[in-house]
Amino acid sequence: MSRQIGNAFQTPTLVELEARVRGLETQVAHLTEMLEALTEEGPIPN
């Protein structure tokens, strides 16, 4: 089984890696914005 998976794996191209990095950068930016918005609101009162 592991041999079949290993044989099917292909190293991603530079273009694919760049697209993944751009996607991750976008996700990080959105998460940062959300975190900043949450911390600006302050703690939730009990």
TrEMBL record:
Source superkingdom: Bacteria
Any coiled-coil regions, as ranges: 14-41
The entry's keywords: Coiled coil
The UniProt record lists the keyword Coiled coil: yes
Protein name: Uncharacterized protein
Native source organism of the sequence: Acrocarpospora macrocephala
Taxon lineage: Bacteria, Bacillati, Actinomycetota, Actinomycetes, Streptosporangiales
